[in-house]
Each structure stands twice: as C-alpha cells, then as structure tokens.
TrEMBL record:
Membrane-spanning ranges: 45-64, 76-94, 100-117, 129-154, 196-214, 226-246
Subcellular location: Cell membrane; Membrane
Protein name: Probable membrane transporter protein
InterPro entries per UniProt: TM_pro_TauE-like, TSUP/Inactive_protease-like
Main location: membrane
The keyword Cell membrane is assigned to this record: yes
Amino acid sequence: MTGVVVLMAAGLLALSIASGMLGLGVAFAAVPFLGFFLPDLVHQVQPLSLFLNGVTAIFAAWGFARSGLVAWRPALLLTAVTGVAAPAGAWLAQGTPQQWLWGIYLLAVAYLAWRMFRPSPTARAAAPALGRAILLAVPIAVLAGLLGVGPGFLLMPALVLVGYEPKTAAGVTAVAVTLPSFTSLVPHLSTADVDLGLAAVLVVVGAAGSYLGARLTSRYVTGPQLKRLFGVLIVVMTAVKVITLIF
C-alpha cells in the first residue's frame, strides 16, 4: 500500500505542477489519474479531486498574485458566478451513470485539446469582454460540477477567447475556480468514501506542486508553451484511461 501511495503522490505532484502553470486546479488531470487507483468515480474520485482542486487553486492563485498576474475584479465576479452554479452539476452527478460521466469527460478533453493546440490570438486593442466571460461561466461551472473537476479546464480557454492575455487568464482562473471546487463538494459529502490519510498526503503534495507551477509560469514560461505542454499531458493521460476502460 505504501508503494501505491508514493506512486499516487509522485503522479499528482507532476500533474499539480502542470495544472498550476495554467491556473486550472488539478482536478481535470487528477480525475483520470486517480481513476487508475480508485474504482468509484462519483464517491471516491470526484470528491477527492474536487477538494484537491480547491487547495491547488488557492496555492496557484497565491503564486500568480505574487507576480501581479491576477486581475481581481473579473476574478471575484467569476468566483461568485461559478461558486453558485457549480453545485447544480455536482448534484446531477449523483444520479448519472458513470459511463455517461466518462463519455462527457472525454468530450470535454477533446475540446480542451483543440483549444490548447490552437494558436494564441493576436493582441487586441479592445478591452477583454468580461460580460461574455460571465455568461460563459454559468454553463462551464455546471458542466464542471457534473464531471467533478472544477471549471478551470474550460474557463481558462474561454477567458483567452474573450480577450485576456494567457498569463492573466491563468491568474484569474486560479482565483475563480477555488470557491466552486468547494461548493461542488457539498453534494458529495454525505456519500463520499475517501481515505483521509491518503487525502492528506495528496493535499500537501498538490499544494506544493501548484504553487511551484504558478511561479514557473510567472517567471519563465510563455502562454503558447503552456498550452501545448498541458495539451499533450492531458491527451496522453486520457488516452491511457480510454485503453483501460476498453480492456
């Protein structure tokens, strides 16, 4: 069992660094990864992933804030919207068959990969369209709650799409996904089956990795590099999960 915990911690460290670089929170990558070790998506993987997502987002937000990359007004507005909308998706997940959830998850991965590999838009003279971002945040948060992953995986590319520079989008996303990660956890509390000792280890590892990832982005990594790196990571990991589901 100790070897399994070490393997899980090492894998989550790598994933939290990568997700922290984009301000996503780790859940979108952690769901398929933890699915290799934990058999129950709704009662084991999702609640653990959501809690990890909230913690890693907090530390990623701290890392981005230290470099002045958090635009606080849009971040707080989006936090309020996603925090209210996300629990609706988490509640729907309680009665949705796991096969459907994995199918929706894979479709979301396909969209994410497409967004990550697209060229970054050229700089715009107009201010970012915050109103459009807020409207998009509602269905994004509901879908994220349904999947148990937090809304960062779709919110970050949505912010880039409406005009935010990628590093600023990552900083805003890190703040905005924190509250919905915890509010989405509420419908899972009565049915969650999580090993608290394992959770404690993963929380510490995830927090350290996400902060490191945010600092790496702030200092050394460009937006296009981030998008390609995470796109490759999530596609490869999900391809392995598809193989395990088939065979």
